[in-house]
Amino acid sequence: MRSVEEHQRVVAGLITARPAATVGLADAEGLVLAEDVVAEVSLPVFDNSAMDGYAVRADEIASASADRPVKLPVAEDIPAGRTDIPTLEPGSAHRIMTGAPIPAGATAVVPVEATDGGTDVVTINDASAEGRHIRRAGEDVAKGSTVLRTGQQVSPAVVGLAAALGRHELTVIPRLRVLVISTGSELVSPGSPLRPGQIYESNSPMLAAAVRDAGATVVATPAVSDEVAQFAAVLDRYAGDSDLIITSGGVSAGAYEVVKDAFGRAGDQGVDFVKVAMQPGMPQGSGRVAGTPIVTLPGNPVSVLVSFEVFVRPALRRAMGLPDAERPRRAAVLTEKLTSPPGKRQFRRGVLDADAGTVSGYGPPGSHHLRYLASANCLLDIAEDVTEIPPGSQVEVWDLG
Ligand code: AMP
Ligand code: MG
């Protein structure tokens, strides 16, 4: 049997980044920059007012107080967006709004609160020192400076900065495109009635959500019966547009194992079917279909999601350069006794109480118990050689957040 670490290496080796691409800001969010961003303008772009008020010459109102206000005629009105900027002549004020350009000659802004708000003549009740309430050009970003670096993840604030600098596109490592195929003649799409012997198809919606959660994108989520021709047709249709194919089901030891059958049981089409020493998720496979990487997961829903967590998610995130490729590992004290099969690394669903530093197993180990996985917040990672863990033991968990 192959170890978990070995299969992680094999899967990681298959999944590689797409070439950098220049995309619109909305599509860049969450991805990693593949360029250094150099400011082509300064921020602020020009000297502008930090307040709604009046642009003045500071020395002309230096003596202003509530008892001895200074009155000045209001010569101009400068709302934000005014593009012709009149000079402030001595002995006058310009009414000015936040973000509007400071007129030549003005050396300070008096906030409207320190005035009577006059539009023909303004009464100023307080002094404003030179430079007060003026945001200077370049005090945030100097034109020509490098403000963002290759490898930085595009956050909402990064999008904001890029836009403020006039960029409508960024060069990033694109999302990997993942095709998710479910197999099984018993499967029916949720929303349709079930006939005897049928079940609802849950792996592809679940895997699609996990793919997106990992930062990748979903090409399509076709579900096929256990007929090789149908499976092959879906591959023909979508594989060329995909960077990774993930299948679920059809790889165990029974008959009608469509994924195994499609690639030949001897693995002669570049797909290796292996047993990995883990529970759940023992039957695994990986390889390439017409050049496109493929990872074949088992069918049981818990095995599917655990396998995705262990093998696919970290490889996808690492290839896209995204942070936190691995889930955070934490040590916690087990509240109960757990048993684990010999020779297999077990990933038990658990509930971690991070404040108390404790963890409890959640639900039975069987790989069809999706209900417990849905309300678990961690995986207990139990080593291959461990068969029994007494309560109070320190265990390692993967924090699913
Ligand atoms: P298999 O590996 O194809 O034999 O599937 C193992 C178990 O998982 C069987 O009980 C299947 O019915 C179930 N299963 C396989 N694929 C899906 C799916 N897409 N949605 C829900 N259950 C599935
Ligand atoms: Mg099946």
From TrEMBL:
Catalytic activity: adenylyl-molybdopterin + molybdate = Mo-molybdopterin + AMP + H(+)
GO MF, any single term: metal ion binding
Record EC number: 2.10.1.1
Residues passing through the membrane, by range: none
Record domain MoaB/Mog: where: 179-318
GO cellular component, one term: cytosol
Keyword Protease: no
Cofactor(s) it depends on: Mg(2+)
Classification via Pfam families: MoCF_biosynth (PF00994), MoeA_C (PF03454), MoeA_N (PF03453)
Keyword annotations of the record: Magnesium, Metal-binding, Molybdenum, Molybdenum cofactor biosynthesis, Transferase
Biological-process GO terms, alphabetical: Mo-molybdopterin cofactor biosynthetic process
Domain of life, source organism: Bacteria
Pathway(s) per entry: Cofactor biosynthesis; molybdopterin biosynthesis
Family from the record: Belongs to the MoeA family.
Functional summary from the UniProt entry: Catalyzes the insertion of molybdate into adenylated molybdopterin with the concomitant release of AMP.
Name the UniProt record assigns to this protein: Molybdopterin molybdenumtransferase
Organism from which the protein derives: Mycobacterium fragae
Lineage of source species: Bacteria, Bacillati, Actinomycetota, Actinomycetes, Mycobacteriales
